[in-house]
Structure formats: C-alpha cells, structure tokens
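A protein record in our archive is deliberately plain, so that people and models can read it alike. The tokens are whole numbers drawn from a learned vocabulary of local backbone shapes. For reference, a complete record is included directly beneath this paragraph.
>
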Amino acid sequence: MSRKWKTLVLSGASLILAGATTAVLISSASTEPTQSAPQGSIAPRSRNLSLQPEAVRVNRRLGNRFKPARGAESILTGTLTVGTDQKPVTIIRRQTDAGEIVELNFSGRRLIWSNTDGIKAIPGLPTESERLLLERLVLDGPDQFVLAQLRGASYYTVTRNLRPNDAGESYSGPLWTLVRVTEPHPVDDTSQNTSWRLYYVNEATDLIDRVVSERNGQAVEAGIQWTERNGDQVPSQIRWTMNGATIMELEVTAFSQNK
C-alpha cells in the first residue's frame, strides 16, 4: 500500500480521479447512472443484505457478524490516537433490522450512532470533534459498506482493475474495484463531510483497502490493514490521512462477538 495513489481532485458536484495518463470523471449523483435500492427500501421491513452485488461480495469475506440474530453484537477494543493524544477505545456494534447501533466508549465519554437517530452523547451533547471522530469510525470501514444498502444508499461502480498511477508494465501488485456509496439523506444533519464515500475493494481479497471522503474541500483517506480473528476478517489498523499527514489512527487489539 506504499505506492503512490491516483490523485483525487474534489469539487462540489463532481470528482475527478486523475492519473499520470488517464482521467475518470465521476459526475454528481443526479446525472450519473446509479445502482440504488428501490425507494421503499430506505426503511425496510426485512433485513436484506443482498441488494447490492459489491456489498454482497465484501459481506461474504467478513464472516458472521451480519447474521440476522436479533441483538447480535460485536465488540472491538484497541487504541485510538488523535494528534498526540493516545487513549484506549471500545467500539460495540449491535445489529438491528434497519442496520446497526454503534457505541463508542472513549476518554470517559459514551457516544452512540445510528442511521435513524444520528449521534448522541452520554452525558451531555456531543462536541463537533466527537461527531467527526465517531462518524469516521462508523463509516470509514467495511461494516457500513455492507449495511448502507438497508437505508437506500446508492452504489456506483466507478471502475474495475484500478492500479496505482505509477504502475509499470511489469506491475504485479493489487488491483481495486472503486465503488462510490452515496447516502439518500444525511446520516447526521451536523456533518461537514460529503454524503458520499469512495471504497477501494481489493480484487484479490474482496476486502476494502481504502476509503476516501471529503471534509471542507479536502480529501480524507482511511487506509485499512486486515487480520483474521475467530474466523472473521477484522481491521487490525485504520490510519486516516489528509494531504499525506496522519490525523487519526486506530490500532485494534481484540475482537469478539456475542450472538
């Protein structure tokens, strides 16, 4: 993952993915063809995770944490570093008919996210930095790539067999399917991030290697490393960067499931 990636040039209604010799124009959701769930699926009566082929592909590789058992949950513990501040963190993801409820315990605070109620904090109200932190931990990963289809998000396959722009003819490294997921409405009304994310799905492993979003006109990239724990594929590390500088990092030390 150390090779130079395609340069991302972001602007309001469109995204230009430019390489050394090629450029791909991704139009706004209002003008491009999309692969979206039917309108009635935003609040589904049944939990159907087979609506989007690319999400199904990733789901098959992740393991058993999306089984429809009511109240099933996964617990991830690790260390979260923001700037120079390093603290232990626990992330609990509880499966629901509409997706999941995510609870973050960090720095003496309990933050809760759901696609129906947005972000809440106990005690008090969440700060702007807490909202941003929780949004990244929830959305910049594989779980919401699979579950976003339950709230009617659109999945658009931008390209397949994507390679680094400095890859030569003898290149034998990973290739990616690039998928853009666009929310049908804001998950959190106060978010300053865009309503879409770009997911780099590794062609060989069917796992997500990188997630790109935008904040205040700047690209934010989350690079994901993987490990296997109890039969499930789980991120071992997620590092967020902006303009090449690390802004946040999650190191995972344990993962378990209660079913």
